[in-house]
Specification:
mainly alpha; 18 helices
């Protein structure tokens, strides 16, 4: 393996672990919701408000972080957010340990955590775009984008194992927050923004080229083809994806009556499905003219799966061992590809982080609104939650349908012309 290939491996692993660490830390919190609910007396609506505060600040922070990562070194922007987030997470752990149930304090901590963690995704997506070519982007980013699902599995399984032995969630939180800080420091020490030959090329740019780079800003990035429909669609997809991730543990414990390893296994199966879905969608989307040709059918198939969630109860809980991973393949897999491979496809080379921030930031806004709605709806019955999720999935499909139809027609026309010529 030559030096360039080794550097690519280092970048892949470090950027992968950044999101693993972020998601495992937050999954530890999601798994602890029932315990926090009983200990601090937080209602489901307030827990939903905490999630929304986190996601709203994460979303708006993505827009700013994308710009920062294009302007300054990714090597410094990403770990700065990770280390600050680790410090704030320690504050949450301390408040819970000391039974300080101040709702205002928790809202502030979660809002600031969301803002700090927003540096991670735009920067790591951009650094992957810098180090890996477009030729096999779907396959490479398909594997790489399983980082969120892998992080959720680490967080949920670690939490489930410790909780089954009666260990307090604060202890698990300390382990996960340490991981977050250590990975951030490793990224700062070992990662580089781009290959050395590209660094030399950038440094040798003429003044005219540099001026052209400055013209691709936040507003101009919104005008790039496909950015707006994908931003709206991802707002819906992430609303759905985070709705499942954040509320599935609570639903299984409170509504279905599961706990311990059974609940943890079902929760983790969503992310296992997401890993398979991301890899499959990435591979297939490299075979078609546009990735929406693969993504739209996946989202359409999620509608009947969501409908079947209504059939689960204490006696038929085993159906979730099928429904949950299937939904993970369809929704979590789609989410991973849109926020990584598609974001890089849409980006101008001079605004890689900015476009990634726009896509993920729009997703975060949708996810934050979704937590407020789900937190309120579940008090009227979980059937209303699943119907709401079906509506969200429908809108995500609607946003991409026009470009999918055009891509399919263009693909068919090209195929007919080639067949005629032959």
């Amino acid at each position: 393996m030559d030096k360039s290939a080794k550097s690519q491996v280092v970048v892949f692993v470090l950027s992968f672990m950044c999101t693993v660490a972020r998601h495992s830390a937050m999954e530890g919190w999601y798994m602890a919701k029932p315990e926090v609910d009983g200990k601090l007396g937080f209602s489901p609506s307030f827990l939903g408000l905490l999630d929304s505060a986190f996601l709203l600040c994460y979303a708006t922070g993505n827009y700013a972080s994308g710009i920062l990562a294009d302007k300054y070194s990714i090597r410094y922007v990403v770990p700065t957010g990770m280390l600050l987030s680790a410090f704030l997470y320690l504050g949450v752990i301390f408040c819970s340990f000391a039974s300080l149930g101040s709702k205002t304090l928790f809202l502030i901590l979660f809002a600031l955590m969301g803002l700090c963690q927003s540096t991670i995704w735009p920067g790591t997506v951009a650094i992957m775009g810098n180090w890996f070519s477009k030729e096999k982007r779907g396959r490479v980013m398909g594997f790489w984008s399983t980082n969120a699902a892998a992080g959720n599995i680490v967080g949920s399984q670690l939490s489930a194992i410790f909780f089954s032995f009666g260990v307090r969630w604060e202890v698990v939180g300390l382990i996960l927050v340490t991981q977050l800080a250590v990975v951030g420091l490793l990224f700062l020490w070992m990662a580089r923004d781009r290959p050395p030959n590209e660094i030399l090329a950038v440094e040798s740019n003429s003044d005219e080229e540099t001026k052209a780079e400055e013209q691709v800003g936040f507003a101009a990035s919104w005008q790039l083809p496909g950015v707006r429909p994908y931003a709206f669609s991802f707002g819906c997809v992430k609303m759905l994806n985070y709705g499942v991730m954040m509320w599935l543990p609570y639903f299984l414990v409170v509504k279905i009556g599961l706990e311990g390893e059974v609940e943890g296994s079902i929760t983790s199966s969503y992310d296992v499905g997401g890993i398979l879905g991301a890899i499959l969608a990435g591979y297939l989307s490299d075979k078609v003219p546009q990735r929406c040709i693969v993504l739209v059918p996946m989202l359409v198939l999620s509608l009947p799966v969501l409908f079947l969630f209504r059939l689960g109860n204490e006696e038929t809980y085993y159906i979730f061992f099928v429904l949950v991973p299937t939904l993970g393949v369809l929704v979590n897999g789609s989410s991973a590809i849109i926020s990584s491979a598609v974001a890089n496809d849409l980006a101008d080379a001079r605004a890689m982080s900015t476009v990634a921030g726009i896509i993920d930031g729009s997703g975060g806004i949708g996810a934050s609104l979704g937590q407020l709605i789900i937190g309120a709806l579940q008090e009227y019955g979980w059937s209303s939650v699943f119907y709401f999720m079906m509506v969200v999935a429908f809108f995500s499909v609607s946003a991409l349908s026009p470009m999918t139809l055009r891509a399919f027609i263009t693909s068919r026309s090209s195929h007919v012309e080639l067949k005629h010529l032959s």
